[in-house]
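Worked Example 4.2. Consider the chain below.
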Amino acid sequence: QVQLVESGGGLVQAGGSLRLSCAASGRTFSSYVLGWFRQAPGMERDIVATITWSSGRTYYADSVKGRFTISRDNAKNTMYLQMNNLKPEDTAVYYCKARPILAGQSEYWGQGTQVTVSS
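Applying the procedure from the previous section yields the following structure tokens:
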């Protein structure tokens, strides 16, 4: 059974930092793009950052460029999101997602972790 399990969320003051983890199990993700998405109350789920597992190529939403860093540890099958200089508008539930590069494979979502940034 494939699972993505997020951890590391919490309450932090503006300007603080958090590191989210997404532990993947049940398969290898060498042909996947993994990413972080977030959803604030009453809002759409938006992309935050992605990383191509095999190449390490990254993408960031403009709103987080220069503050967030996505990375992965192949040996641990885990993806991370280092979030620095957090702002109240970063408050949301953060989800990790695995999207297949090849057709015919499944995509997977984690259950989400809450990040709350106080002003």
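Residues 99 and 107 are 5 Å apart (CA to CA). The mean pLDDT is 96. Compare this with Example 4.1 before moving on.
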